[in-house]
Amino acid sequence: MYGRIVVAMDGSETARRGLDAAIRLARDGNGRLLLVHVVEEFMPLAINGDWTLPALPVEPYSEAATRLLEDAREICRAAGVMAETRLLEAAGRRVGPLVSETAAEWQADLIVAGTHGRRGLDRLLLGSVAEGIIRTARTPVLLLPPV
C-alpha cells in the first residue's frame, strides 16, 4: 500500500514508535523507508534586539544525528526493510516544511512522525514539527502521539 515512506527521526521514544510502525507498513507493502533527521542551527536570543551572538556550531549535533540515523537504518536492516538516510540542515528554515519538501522530492507515499504532545507555552516556544508537517505535506501523514 505504501511503497515509499519518510520517517522523521529525532531520537525520541515517539519517533522510535514511528519507525516501528513504518517498518511494519513497509514490510506489509514491500516498501522502503527514507529516514530523515533535521539539524537546526541554534541561535542565542538577542536582548532587546541590541546584540546578537554567532550561531552555535552544528558539527557535534550532525555527528550525533548521523549515529542516530545509522542506528535506525540498522534496525530496518534487521527487520528486512530497505532504508536510506538523509541528514538535513535547516539553515534557518522550519523543520516541518523541510520534512514535507523532502518527502515530496523523494515521491513519498506517506510521512510518519511522532508527536511530543506539547501544549501551551512549551508549544509556543518550541513550535510543533508535527503541525508543520501536516500543514505543508502533499502526502498522507501518520502521527504517533506519546504513550
Structural descriptors:
about 150 residues; alpha/beta; Rossmann fold; about 40% helix; globular
Oligomer: single chain
Number of strands: 5
Cα radius of gyration in angstroms: 16 Å
Number of domains: 1
Q: Major sheet, described briefly?
A: 5 strands, parallel
**Low-confidence sequence ranges:** 121-126
Give the percentage of residues in beta strands: 15-25%
> Distance between the terminal alpha carbons, to the nearest Å?
26 Å
CATH fold field value: Rossmann fold
The helicity comes to 40-55%
- The CATH superfamily bears the name HUPs
Strand order of the largest sheet: 3-2-1-4-5
Which CATH class applies here? Alpha Beta
Molecular shape: globular
**Strand-and-helix sequence, N→C?**
EHEHEHEHHE
Q: Mean pLDDT, nearest integer?
A: 85
Class by alpha and beta content: alpha/beta
- The DSSP helix count reads 5
CATH architecture: 3-Layer(aba) Sandwich
Provide a compact summary of the structure:
With 147 residues, the chain is α/β, with parallel strands linked by helices.
Describe what this molecule looks like in 3D.
This protein has five helices and five strands. The chain is of the alpha/beta class and 147 residues long. It has a five-stranded parallel sheet with strand order 3-2-1-4-5, sandwiched between helices. The longest helix has 20 residues, at 59-78. The chain is globular.
